[in-house]
Write a structure and sequence with these properties.
Layout (H helix, E strand, L loop, with lengths): L6 H5 L5 H7 L9 H5 L1 H8 L3 E6 L5 E5 H17 L7 E5 L4 H12 L3 E4 L6 H11 L3 E4 L1 H10 L8 E4 L12 E3 L21 E7 L7 E6 L3 H10 L8 E4 L6 H13 L3 E5 L5 H11 L3 E4 L1 H10 L2 H4 L8 E4 L6 H11 L3 E5 L9 E2 L13 E2 L5 E4 L14 E5 L9 E2 L3 H5 L2 E2 L2 E10 L5 E6 L4 E3 L2 E3 L1 H9 L4 E11 L3 E10 L7 H14 L8 E4 L13 H9 L13
Parallel strand pairs: 1-11, 3-4, 3-5, 5-6, 6-7, 10-11, 10-12, 12-13, 13-14, 26-27
Antiparallel strand pairs: 1-2, 8-9, 9-19, 14-15, 15-16, 17-18, 18-21, 20-21, 21-22, 23-24, 25-26
Helix pairs in contact: 5-6, 7-8, 9-10
This protein binds 5'-O-[(S)-butoxy(hydroxy)phosphoryl]adenosine (WT7).
């Protein structure tokens, strides 16, 4: 029997107080995610149950019980307090998927500070804009990433401490740097959790938009109410599960469902800190007897490419429930997984801003391959007419996905950018920025984004950010960045570039520019192709018309060009 039982029955009379009650939270009381994920689980008698089964490169591994993660979070929290870190200070986690990332996250929350996880593959420029915007006071990192921090620290006067968790004493520490080793620190048994309340800020995740710099999506401790119940009903997490979320906590999936949801439920999860390979992934599932697996379409498509033979070489019979998020899950992938694993991937739809799943396919409910499913109980989801912003009643008609504000995990603002936050609402609907249609059974079908943001392998990349970085390259005079189709990653970044005089439009130049972006921003933001052009299509007001270049890449109709500069 699944946790949710009947979706239809859950819909009737749904109230989030159900989740509050299960968690023993009384409105108006204190609520702290760090405490809920550790102390509470220990108090419930699960202190010795494995919380984290971690595996690193080359097969190194380690298991932490709920009592271990409780102590580790206390120890990190205590250390940060000793450095003068106060509630609401921003503490950045800039780490690979090592245990300190997960334990540090909980420690930061326990002292009431704000956790700001950043993807460790980010280059110095990506890091700089996010630390600057958040006025981050502490960054926790590891030796292999510290050089990126050193490059930008002079531009970050508010950054007080750079903590290195794996310092080996070989090279001297530099200014503001500190060595902290979790294994060597004295474990802190008794710890007073900071008295955060429902609306106290918890996590700050940066996400890319079409214009302007990345935005800091600010969440609060009350988000737990939604993350807990969605993890329970959608991922169907149960007491004896071994859960694997493949996402990196640098992104919201890796925190909402790679830390908070499963540990709030007291469920054992495993983490693999190494790159993707079909062989390594199947071996991991087999070795740890993974039962619930939450992954992403790009990974699933990569597994499809690796073929069925390799699946047969592994015993994957432990798998009970599969789910996916981040980009459109094509029907082929659902049908394929049903054939080779004997179960379909259940698509889920949500965003950094929504903090928790909004639309999903539920255990026990018919999966329509290619559809995202139906809104979670308590969530009012509609598609709006793009002109009137009124809900569309007609089945199958495409509109803007929108939600009635007020679910527990909804972002509370964009950091330091209330105006952009307010612009996300119209007629008291939260606008997701995506388009979809709803069929006559209430299932949502994703159509596309309503902006120029590129979704490559489930990660959002702002064309504006890539264009800005390209301009910093000496060879580039002007550029326009759009997506182009890709079999595995769905979309990849493509740049149209006008070179400055004296630079050769050849393959070597292309590689130099690509590498420049990879190092400055990230491997995801790196254009997979650079097309040299003599001019770029612009509007009369001088704005580059990405829409035209996009249509060209996707073989779509170009549409209205009446505002083009040269016709
Ligand atoms: C955007 C949000 C929260 C999950 C990680 C991504 C796209 C997300 C789906 C899906 C089609 C999807 C949307 C959305 N997206 N899930 N199931 N089908 N598209 O969080 O980085 O904030 O990205 O990812 O475009 O707006 P994010």
């Amino acid at each position: 029997m699944s946790n949710i039982g009947s979706y239809e029955e859950r819909l009737a009379g749904f109230d989030w107080s159900l989740s509050e009650k299960e968690l023993g939270y009384i409105p108006g009381d204190r609520i702290n995610i760090g405490w809920y994920c550790t102390d509470r689980i220990c108090q419930m008698g699960m202190a010795d149950k494995p919380a984290l089964i971690w595996e690193g490169l080359g097969g190194s591994g380690r298991t932490y019980t709920f009592n271990d993660i409780r102590l580790a979070a206390n120890t990190i929290g205590h250390y940060l307090q000793g450095l003068g870190v106060k509630d609401q200070d921003r503490v950045c986690l800039f780490l690979d998927k090592i245990p300190e990332l997960y334990l540090g996250f909980l420690g930061i929350l326990k002292i009431g500070a704000i956790a700001q996880p950043l993807f460790s593959a980010f280059g110095d420029e990506s890091l700089l804009v996010r630390l600057e915007n958040a006025e981050t006071s502490v960054i926790i990192t590891q030796r292999k990433h510290v050089s990126k921090v050193r490059k930008i620290r002079d531009q970050l006067p508010q950054l007080r401490h750079i903590i290195i968790v794996d310092y080996d004493g070989r090279k001297p520490l530099q200014e503001r740097e500190l060595a902290f080793s979790l294994d060597e620190a004295a474990p802190v048994e008794e710890f007073e959790v900071f008295p955060t309340e429902a609306e106290s800020p918890s996590v700050l995740h940066y996400t890319s938009g079409t214009t302007g710099m990345p935005k800091g999506v600010q969440h609060v401790h009350y988000s737990l109410i939604a993350q807990y119940l969605t993890a329970k009903w959608v991922l169907d997490l149960q007491d004896d599960d071994i859960y694997w979320c493949t996402a990196d906590p640098g992104w919201v999936t890796g925190t909402s469902y790679g830390i908070i949801g499963p540990w709030g439920l007291g469920v054992t999860q495993c983490v693999l800190d190494s790159g993707f390979s079909a062989e390594a992934w199947y071996r991991f599932i087999e070795k740890h007897r993974v039962t619930v697996w939450y992954s992403a379409p790009t990974a699933i498509r990569s597994l499809m490419r690796a073929g069925e033979e390799i699946v047969k070489q592994h015993d994957l019979s432990s798998l009970r429930h599969l789910a996916s998020v981040g980009e459109p899950l094509n029907s082929e992938a659902v049908i394929w997984s049903e054939r080779v694993f004997g179960k379909p991937f259940h698509d889920t739809y949500w965003q950094t801003e929504t903090g928790a799943m909004m639309i999903a396919n539920y255990p026990g409910m018919k999966v329509k391959p290619g559809s995202m499913g139906r809104p979670f109980p308590g969530i009012t989801g509609v598609v709006l007419d793009p002109n009137s912003h009124e809900p569309i009643a007609e089945a199958g008609k495409v509109g803007l996905i929108a939600f009635k504000p007020g679910w527990p995990a909804m972002m509370r603002t964009y950091w330091n950018n209330e105006a952009t936050y307010q612009a996300k609402f119209v007629n008291n609907w939260y606008l997701s920025g995506d388009r979809a249609s709803i069929d006559n059974e209430g299932y949502f079908w994703f159509v596309g984004r309503d902006d120029d943001v590129i979704n490559t392998a489930g990660h959002l990349v702002s064309p504006f950010e890539v264009e800005s970085a390209l301009l910093e390259h000496e060879a580039v005079a002007e550029s326009a960045v759009v997506s182009k189709p890709d079999e595995v990653n769905m979309e990849v970044v493509k740049a149209f570039v006008m070179l400055n005089p004296g630079f050769e439009p050849d393959a070597e130049q292309e590689l130099r520019i690509m590498n420049f972006i990879r190092k400055k921003l990230s491997p995801l933001a790196m254009p997979q192709e650079i097309e040299y052009v003599d001019s770029l299509p612009k509007t009369r007001s001088g704005k580059i018309m990405r829409r035209l270049l996009h249509a060209q890449e996707w073989g779509e109709e170009i549409g209205d060009t009446s505002t083009l500069e040269d016709e």
